[in-house]
Design goal:
Chains A, B: Keywords: DNA-binding, Transcription, Transcription regulation. Chains A, B: InterPro entries: Homeodomain-like_sf, HTH-type_TetR-like_transc_reg, HTH_TetR, KstR2_TetR_C, Tet_transcr_reg_TetR-rel_C_sf. Chains A, B: It comes from Dictyobacter alpinus. The structure is a homodimer. Chain A is 70% helix and 0% strand. By secondary structure, chain A is mostly helical. Chain A has 2 domains: 43 residues, Arc Repressor Mutant, subunit A; 140 residues, Tetracycline Repressor, domain 2. The radius of gyration of chain A is 20 Å and the shape is elongated. The relative contact order of chain A is 0.10. Chains A and B meet through helix 8 and helix 10 of A and helix 8 and helix 10 of B. The structure holds a DNA duplex.
DNA sequence: GTCTATAGCTGGATAGAC
DNA sequence: GTCTATCCAGCTATAGAC
């Protein structure tokens, strides 16, 4: 594949990402994707066989990226809490960096045709299984509270994924701040421990 | 409005709920909605002015229901923890009872035309504001850990809303079980309190 | 590799009979 | 209140020139 060709391929994909995220797959006309990429609609078919192929490529690329990064974290860490912290940070980092792509993954599963849906779903299932493995291990080693592993994984994924919906790169909070807030919420919950209520908040004590 | 008329109105709406949830707004043809309701597509226009009107009515009805129930909870309770428990239970109850309707609210915001989107968004904002009021009050009264109120509200809403995606009425867990698991996760988090870490296994007790 | 032109279809919505 | 018939706009995708 020659460089000029690859460049146009990427321009088309970037335009598709933008419009799929903004209007949804079915509401985004191929003509508009072509216009943003700077060519005619028919020319897209030199680079991709169909509109559906654009959606599949967006979803596959980023689900593979997400899974590979979590597999790497599990391989490099043994401590359940370190693993969880790294997994949260990784999920939030990717969902803010590739915010539109993951928003599409989160909202356009139904737009996948029967031919491709099982494959993309299997990638999503794989991610859930990796996180559940992390949680199960942490519970067996008495680091995490024993709870329903599946529901815990769904809850963590849902709240960390939704960051892709509202996060703004130049908004009130940085990625690092969002990460810190989510980490504490997931590990410690909302409730103040009854006895420890008063003087020094844990999260600032170590700064002194 | 005569009874026969209202009945067909509801049949049409129910069919729209089913197909919007299953295929998405843009991918659900009006002809299919009509077929499920047992009439011809053109007859729908006697009951609703447009396809868009079906979507708006579904979203409005259930967002109003959700807001009214949370307002009622805030009025009837004063204790922050009781309020939070009631809010979680209420959110999960509605999102499992009207699972398709809330799934549509969660995934088809982009399908709203400019004329109606601000109104539906204002209802969603209202719900977030009510929950944030609950959280803010609980933090000021030293019941909840001080944290970012907006993010905490987004996290709680995201995880409790996603129940509408995977919950199955005759599945592994009852609504009550799901509610209990979520309640503990939100208030206490995943981590076991270090001191309270259960009876110590014999082979590690000597390390203390 | 990109273009113009258009095929082929499907969709929401309307007209007007009954 | 529901029907049949149809308009017409919009879409994805293809054909074939350059």
């Amino acid at each position: 594949m020659r460089p000029e060709s690859r460049s146009m391929r990427e321009s088309i994909l970037a335009a598709a990402v933008q419009l799929f995220a903004q209007y949804g797959y079915h509401a985004a006309p191929l003509r508009d994707i072509a216009r943003i990429a700077g060519i005619q609609a028919a020319s897209i078919y030199h680079h991709y066989p169909s509109k559906q192929a654009l959606l599949v490529e967006i979803m596959e690329t980023h689900m593979l990226r997400l899974n590979a990064s979590l597999e790497h974290i599990l391989k490099e860490n043994d401590d359940p809490l370190q693993r969880l912290h790294a997994a949260i940070a990784n999920h939030i980092r990717l969902h803010t960096t590739y915010k539109e792509e993951f928003f599409i993954i989160d909202t356009e599963m139904r737009a996948l045709e029967d031919e491709h849906r099982p494959y993309i779903l299997s990638l999503r299932d794989k991610y859930e299984a990796l996180l559940q493995e992390l949680l199960q291990d942490g519970m067996e080693r008495e680091i995490f509270r024993r709870s329903d592993v599946k529901i815990a994984s769904y809850a963590i994924i849902a709240m960390c994924t939704e960051v892709a919906t509202w996060f703004r790169p130049n908004g009130r909070l940085s990625v690092q701040q969002v990460n810190t807030i989510y980490r504490q919420f997931i590990t410690e919950g909302l409730l103040l421990p009854p006895g420890v209520a008063a003087p020094m908040p844990d999260e600032t004590a170590h700064l002194l």
